[in-house]
Amino acid sequence: MRTMSYFRRPLKGHIQVPGDKSISHRAVMLGAVADGVTTVEHFLPGEDCLSTISCFEKMGITIHRNGENVTVDGSGWNGLLEPKEILDVGNSGTTTRLLLGILAGLPLHACLIGDESISMRPMKRVTNPLRKMGAKIDGREDGQFTPIASRGGSLQGIDFHSPVASAQVKSAILLAGLNANGKTTVTEPHQSRDHTERMLQAFGVTIEVEGNTISLSGGQQLTATSIYVPGDISSAAFLLVAGAIVPNSEIVVKNVGINPSRTGIIDVLQQMGATISIQNKREKNFEPFADLHISTSNLNGIEIGGELIPRLIDEIPIIALLATQAQGTTIIKDASELKVKETNRIDTVVKELSKLGANIIATEDGMIIKGKSSLHAAAVQSHGDHRIGMMLSIASFVANGEMSIEDTEAIAVSYPSFFEHIESLIMK
User: Fold this and answer.
1) Which of the residues 48, 232, 291, 314 is marked catalytic?
2) What angle is formed at CA 306 by the lines to CA 300 and CA 307, rounded to 5 degrees?
3) N or C, which end of the chain has less CB nearby within 10 Å?
4) Hey, CA dihedral for 390, 30, 179, 205, is it positive or negative?
5) How far apart (Å, rounded) are the C-alpha atoms in residues 50 and 18?
6) Which pLDDT belongs to residue 428?
7) Distances (CA, A) of 114 to 157, 167, 256
């Protein structure tokens, strides 16, 4: 449990958030199946990404880690060995689903297991299309939940229309498609984050993108490369919101990834009237990044839904807090995917923010928040969800009194240095 009492303490300064979690996962995974040594700079040493490293080490891949610098010694697809141990994915849905895609086309037997949260997260959205390609996958409730066992083999490319806009589903199928006969195509209802497509190109893979449809041909080999991991915009979101809602604050978050499939949080801040600017834009490995400058702002409620949701799905907990400090009503809709995250984030966000005095109600696919609310400190809990824990920590800057937050250890999943960074920005 952590006790926090930061009410109206201004935040000022420059900060660089940890590397992007999605890109860090993929850099290790693609490096493991590429030919040669892949170097990864500004890797996120969070628990989820370390789970990915552990799984590939158990399959014979040599990975060296020196803080935020990682090297992966790949020997192509044939370099992966059948693991002698169960692959523990920890709390990482990305590790679970993308690894199933990689294993689907390899003649290996592997069993994946994770923590209690992972055991409740739906996997049929991945295992069903992989089975259609010819993968042999079994698991609890017919492959719906972990533990899941995979025995890969001969795959056939498919044309898959995903019922959900999910980068994990799309990525798993595309990764399997690299070892399938013929062409594999994935079409989404809305575009999800496209880090896999961008990074595959950095590793020399040819892909075709037309709107929300992505295609690639099987039999392609990956060539090792150097990857720079920009700052994670999902982590930066907590500091951006703090800069907007805490009085007399001004923050510059440096080297943040601004991949268009991830910048929904910037769009929301701009639409609500935040004083935010994007500076020093540049690009490496097909991924753009920039410095984000934000200061205390007068905000107004808006409606958030439709194609914007996949571009900010992980940021909705902190957006809910943002909305409590905006004038008028904010409606978040089309976000039922929140129910199958680390927690049911609709119910959890509403429950915890209500304890602080927020005027917030849950809907079937989102929430309605009426502002501006005067929040008061209370005893709250993360429910083991890193993004809920960080959101409640930022709430301590606008909630009067002493906040006690249970299970803040979960924050290490994506932002191990979170509290250190927050402390460095507080005006002394």
Assistant:
1) 314
2) 105
3) C
4) positive
5) 14
6) 63
7) 29, 20, 30
User: Over the stretch 79-124, which tens digit does the pLDDT of each residue have?
Assistant: 999 999 999 999 999 999 999 999 999 999 999 999 998 999 999 9
Q: Phi and psi at residue 192, in whole multiples of 5°?
A: -95, 175
CA 399 to chain centre: 27
Contact between residue 178 and residue 218 where contact means Cβ atoms under 8 Å apart: yes
How far is it, in rounded angstroms, from Cα 402 to Cα 29?
43
**What pLDDT, in 10s, does the model give residues 226-277?**
999 999 999 999 999 999 999 999 999 999 999 999 999 999 999 999 999 9
Using CA atoms, how far apart are residues 251 and 14, in angstroms rounded to an integer? 6
Per the annotation, the verdict on 334 as an active-site residue is: no
Domain-wise residue ranges, the chain: 2-18+230-425, 21-228
Q: Do domains 2-18+230-425 and 21-228 have the same CATH topology?
A: yes
Candidate CATH numbers 3.90.550.10, 1.10.287.110, 3.65.10.10, 3.60.9.10; the one for domain 2-18+230-425: 3.65.10.10
Tokens of 80: 């992966």
Annotate 262-331 with DSSP letters as a single string. Answer: TTHHHHHHHHHT-EEEEEEEEEETTEEEEEEEEE----B--EE-GGGGGGTGGGHHHHHHHHHTSBEEEE
Task: Give the model confidence (pLDDT) of 136-189 as tens digits.
Answer: 999 999 989 999 999 988 999 999 999 989 999 999 999 999 999 999 999 999
Fill in the DSSP letter of residue 47.
H
The first and second tokens of residue 159, run together, are 């044309």
Cα(334)–Cα(410) distance, integer angstroms: 27
Q: What is the amino acid identity at position 6?
A: Y
pLDDT for 337: 87
Q: How many other CB atoms sit within 10 Å of the CB of residue 233? A: 28
> Which of these, 139, 142, 145, lies nearest to 117 by C-alpha position?
145
Distance CA 359, CA 245 (A): 17
Percent of the chain with pLDDT over 70: 100
What pLDDT, on a 0 to 100 scale, did the predictor assign at position 81? 97
Pick the CATH number of 21-228 from 3.30.420.40, 3.40.50.970, 3.65.10.10, 3.30.230.80: 3.65.10.10
When computed from its CA atoms, the radius of gyration of the chain, rounded to whole angstroms, is 21
For residue 173, what is the enclosing H or E element? helix 167-177
User: CA-to-CA distance for 185 and 215, rounded, in angstroms?
Assistant: 4
